[in-house]
């Protein structure tokens, strides 16, 4: 496998990857987010760069160092992440590893929200839907070859197939996040790839960097040949 990477499996390709969580402001000091570490997306960016691709990595707030030869663009919210991904087009491949917040507060307050000192009641926060970054790029005039992730706790493969078809993807990577030692915040992962023809391929538990190399290798094999 190391030799294939040295040969530049993705030489001449532009690979766009998003990674990490997004943060949706409630007020200047509070936000809604999730536990995504960004590790899988950063490992994919590293592996794609090793395979010779030009890599653009659009990252939410994470605590990770940028892999060598990767162009990183930092963003905070889902809407910023969508804008940065669209700006990075055209790309040959888009890998959507980010854990995009599905909802954001309907409006972010300009000043810190204060409790009502005269009452001990709760509060209601109105949320609105965020744009779907992956579905937007999959329907874009400059559509890249689109790879999604499906992090699920149950009925993993059937939900993953639904997302593949609903978002019109080329490949979906299903991830069972109910197991404590893999997925979201851990160093290991185990995934099942499902392509457009519903062909399935399971990659057993391994480090995220080993899995990333395998995934990049498989993606490279799917891409249409480049014009001479
Ligand atoms: N995704 C996205 N933009 C969103 C939500 C999800 O680009 N607003 C992408 C993710 O990056 C991932 C894929 O869509 O590649 C599936 O994300 P997931 O959260 O599993 O699916 P959802 O479509 O959000 O459905 P749900 O959370 O209800 O399962
Ligand atoms: Ca979601």
Give a brief description.
The protein has helices at 2-6, 39-50, 78-88, 133-138, 156-166, 208-222, and strands at 14-19, 24-27, 30-32, 54-59, 70-74, 93-96, 103-105, 127-129, 145-152, 171-176, 188-195, 200-207. By secondary structure, the protein is α/β, with parallel strands linked by helices.
What does this protein look like?
With 228 residues, the protein is an alpha/beta fold. Helix content is 26%, strand content 28%. It is built from 6 helices and 12 strands. It has helices at residues 2-6, 39-50, 78-88, 133-138, 156-166, 208-222, and strands at 14-19, 24-27, 30-32, 54-59, 70-74, 93-96, 103-105, 127-129, 145-152, 171-176, 188-195, 200-207. Helix 5 (156-166) links the parallel strand 9 (145-152) and strand 10. Helix 2 (39-50) packs across helix 6 (208-222). The longest helix is centred in the C-terminal third of the chain and has 15 residues, at 208-222. The radius of gyration is 19 Å and the shape is globular. The mean pLDDT is 94. It binds cytidine-5'-triphosphate and calcium ion (CA). Cytidine-5'-triphosphate is lined by residues 78, 96, 98, 100, 102, 130, 132-134, 148-151, 163. CTP binds at residues 102, 112, 131-134, 149, 163, 167. Its EC number is 4.1.1.36, 6.3.2.5. In the N-terminal section; belongs to the HFCD (homo-oligomeric flavin containing Cys decarboxylase) superfamily. It catalyses: N-[(R)-4-phosphopantothenoyl]-L-cysteine + H(+) = (R)-4'-phosphopantetheine + CO2; (R)-4'-phosphopantothenate + L-cysteine + CTP = N-[(R)-4-phosphopantothenoyl]-L-cysteine + CMP + diphosphate + H(+).
């Amino acid at each position: 496998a190391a030799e294939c990477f040295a040969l530049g499996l993705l030489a001449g390709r532009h690979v766009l990857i998003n990674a990490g969580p997004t943060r949706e402001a409630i007020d200047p000091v509070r936000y809604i987010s999730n536990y995504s570490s960004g590790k899988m997306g950063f490992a994919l960016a590293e592996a794609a760069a090793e395979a010779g691709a030009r890599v653009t990595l659009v990252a939410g707030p994470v605590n990770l160092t940028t892999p060598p030869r990767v162009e990183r663009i930092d963003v905070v919210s889902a809407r910023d992440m969508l804008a940065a991904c669209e700006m990075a087009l055209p790309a040959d491949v888009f890998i959507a590893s980010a854990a995009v917040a599905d909802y954001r507060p309907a409006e972010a307050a300009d000043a810190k929200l204060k409790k009502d000192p005269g009452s001990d009641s709760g509060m209601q926060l109105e949320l609105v839907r965020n744009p779907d970054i992956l579905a937007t790029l999959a329907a874009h005039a400059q559509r890249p070859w689109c790879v999604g992730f499906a992090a699920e706790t149950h009925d993993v493969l059937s939900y993953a197939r639904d997302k593949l078809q609903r978002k019109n993807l080329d490949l979906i990577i299903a991830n069972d996040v109910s197991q404590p030692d893999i997925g979201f915040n851990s160093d290991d992962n185990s995934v099942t790839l499902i392509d457009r023809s519903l062909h399935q391929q399971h990659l057993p538990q391994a480090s995220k960097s080993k899995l990333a190399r395998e995934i990049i290798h498989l993606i490279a094999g799917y891409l249409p040949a480049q014009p001479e």
